[in-house]
Amino acid sequence: QAQLVESGGGLVQPGGSLRLSCVAYGFTFSSHAMNWYRQAPGKERELVAAITSAGDNTIYADSVRGRFTISRDNGKNTLYLQMNSLNAEGTAVYYCDTPRLTRGQGIQVTVSS
Q: CA neighbours within 13 Å on the CB side: how many for 17?
């Protein structure tokens, strides 16, 4: 059964950094493009970043470009999201997602002093 498990969330001060991880189980991770989404309270879900199966192409939301980096290690079946210069807008539940297959349970990131 395909499954994604996120980790690395938590509380961070404005201007700080966090790295989210997402481990894939039960499917051929290296064959699938991957996404990071987030959903803030009272807002619609937003695509934050996406990466191709080989990791050779990435896209970012305008709101995070230059501060966030999506990457993957296909040998470890793991997707990453490095988040730098976090601001209050970064407070949300973050989800990793395999298009048309499965999505993680989500992990909370809170940016606050």
A: 8
Kindly tell me the sign of the dihedral angle through the C-alpha atoms of 65, 84, 33, 101: negative
pLDDT digits (tens, 9 = 90+) for 73-102: 999 999 999 999 999 999 999 999 999 999
In whole angstroms, give the CA distance from residue 102 to residue 49: 16
Residue pair 86/112 in contact (Cβ under 8 Å)? The answer is no
Strand partners, 102: 98
* Torsion sign across C-alpha atoms 92, 70, 80, 98: positive
d(CA 41, CA 25): 29
